[in-house]
Amino acid sequence: MRPEKIARDVYRVRTLIVNAYLVRDRMSGGWALIDAGMPGHAGAIRRAAARLFGSKRPRTILLTHGHFDHVGSLAALTATWGVPVFAHALEMPYLTGRCSYPPADPSVGGGAMAWMSPLYPRGPFHFEGAVERLPINGVVPGLPEWQWLLTSGHAPGHVSFFREGDGTLIAGDAVVTTKEESLVDALLERRHVWRPPAYFTPDWTSARRSVETIAALDPEVLATGHGHPLKGLPMRRALRRLAARFDEFVPKSGRYVPYPAVFDAQGVIRVPRRPASAVTGPKIAAGIGAAAVAAGLIAFARPDRLRHGAERTGATDSLG
């Protein structure tokens, strides 16, 4: 896939259903990669980078968080490029082999992506020696125009990257722009300003604060981990409504409702018990079947057909 320009010096590469971003620093001429996408997509990311930057390696790789779909191609990329990787200190236990993320909750969100979530890798991931802590003062290594902001909830050390000069925000999964619980929505990138993916969000109180933080930035461009980037006033209105009405989008019940998982700098301290209503057997099997169908669609559908399908799905300020 060709890199898609979404803002000045910012380009998106879609890796199946997850986005990675290539960001040029105009002052130095260098560039950085934000997130490393799904497994098996290192080649696509490298080809996109070569189109934009020739043989120049990135100065850094920056992670919004360490979930499997954001670090899937990280090992292959670091093996090729040999550049430092940065993540928030609270993500380090999951990226350096010390701790797994909390279990997914397939009982929330609905849809095949949620039902399949117990099958998703949750670590621990082993990037010892490659990953470093982000500076504590909001400085983004390799991108001096940007700052990082803690936007936890979906992950303990989740961060977003913001360029105040033009209002460009790379928000990871703190908010997304498609209903990621739905496999069809995720594939077609049907456009909504939406909560973080419910099945992998273990702290809804922190998630609410993060959405409020993001809405208060009043971004001009909202680029997220899942879904097509959105721009302008309709997006900002939808983002403000999501922040104001966030309680309506929190699942009514679930493993992490009302009590969140508890974390510290060493990893997970406490995980609530799985609720009696948790999704089991038949729905997970249905999710696996849906995944097989999706694989066939991905293999045989033309990329332009998927793109055009997304463009027919409605206004960019939808919350429902």
Secondary structure class reads alpha/beta
Strand order of the largest sheet: 1-2-3-4-5-6-7
Distance between the termini: 29 Å
What is the overall number of helices?
10
Describe the main β-sheet briefly: 7 strands, mixed
Q: Examine the secondary-structure arrangement and name the CATH architecture.
A: 4-Layer Sandwich
What is the fourth-level CATH superfamily? Ribonuclease Z/Hydroxyacylglutathione hydrolase-like
Rough outline: globular
Report on this structure:
The structure is a single chain. By secondary structure, the chain is of the alpha/beta class. It has one domain (4-311): Ribonuclease Z/Hydroxyacylglutathione hydrolase-like (Metallo-beta-lactamase, Chain A, 4-Layer Sandwich). Helix content is 29%, strand content 17%. It is built from ten helices and 14 strands. It has helices at 42-53, 68-71, 74-81, 92-95, 112-115, 183-188, 204-217, 232-244, 281-300, 303-311; strands spanning 4-7, 10-15, 18-24, 31-34, 60-62, 85-87, 131-133, 147-150, 159-163, 168-170, 221-223, 230-231, 262-264, 267-270. A seven-stranded mixed sheet has the order 1-2-3-4-5-6-7, covered by helices on one side. Helix 7 runs antiparallel to helix 8. The two termini are 29 Å apart. The model is unreliable at 289-320 (pLDDT under 50).
